[in-house]
Amino acid sequence: xxxxxxxxxxxxxxxxxxxxxxxxxxxxxxxxxxxxxxxxxxxxxxxxxxxxxxxxxxxxxxxxxxxxxxxxxxxxxxxxxxxxxxxxxxxxxxxxxxxxxxxxxxxxxxxxxxxxxxxxxxxxxxxxxxxxxxxxxxxxxxxxxxxxxxxxxxxxxxxxxxxxxxxxxxxxxxxxxxxxxxxxxxxxxxxxxxxxxxxxxxxxxxxxxxxxxxxxxxxxxxxxxxxxxxxxxxxxxxxxxxxxxxxxxxxxxxxxxxxxxxxxxxxxxxxxxxxxxxxxxxxxxxxxxxxxxxxxxxxxxxxxxxxxxxxxxxxxxxxxxxxxxxxxxxxxxxxxxxxxxxxxxxxxxxxxxxxxxxxxxxxxxxxxxxxxxxxxxxxxxxxxxxxxxxxxxxxxxxxxxxxxxxxxxxxxxxxxxxxxxxxxxxxxxxxxxxxxxxxxxxxxx
Length: 445
Description:
This protein is mainly α.
């Protein structure tokens, strides 16, 4: 007779093959619609007369709307089911992203970016929560890491695609940046409709899982849920007040500052390094750091699951990102600057799937929906802070490099805070029967 853990492992492999590619496609479109304004920056500002300060505010105001609705949206997903709620998110955000083609004034630009944040709120933490319904903790960093391929893939494919769409300038009387917003936004809405037919809410709904594997998986997930319920906060208010949740939110804010401080300006930075305008060539070169991020996410996620040492692996990975951001500024040549950007992207992308094992390990049920939503909501404000603090630092110091130095420092601070997360999680109870001892809570070491 095959042990229950073997059956559960087989189920996880089926889950990864079935769900992760589709969730990955959704995340690629989500991340691309969030940051494609970076590819359109120069042409968009030239056509609309938007100042650098207005661009920075509009790029960041997305995260205000996102943060305001994040927790309610995640609770709605927990209440109504992932299939319907993730589909709703994709359809509405795709339509609003497409409407960015008509953002000819500052007011419309601000309004649409804010509404895009409201529409997309709950998607990312919703998927993280959704994966806790399907994947046991001992496999979670690896599966989260596969999902996290979405951000770098959005740049690897989105860079050349966005660049090509920008070069359609004038076709059918439509400006290049309008083509980009229309095509990429409507693609998200189409995938949202597809999600209604493709996704299942829980393992018990999955007809594509053999009954014995489904039962073994649900048994292990139920045992984990009982353990998390015993040691973590319960209820919405207790979760919102939890020092552990607030501490994780602060760490995630610093991570997101590094992500968006680089992402919103990466095409422009690469164009300056190459001495050319943003287009297909810049899009192709911009993809290089994100290829490194994919390799790092794959390797770091597997290393984290194999060793169980979430805390130290995440801290070192984020520290590498901070050093990479600083290195991209001090490098004496474009080639060395690209090496720095590769380390930066690899670090701040690869750290995130490991980071998300921390809240998922101490929260369950409504508390998980609330806590994961809150960590992501407050953390996502880093996407608002980053472009504005970068712009303020560049202006205040009279240097286009000052903002990146500030972001490098905040990233290193985030690494230090991750290193101190040992206090977040109580001692692990005795592992369930059949669980390998080597995989139990080494992150508290």
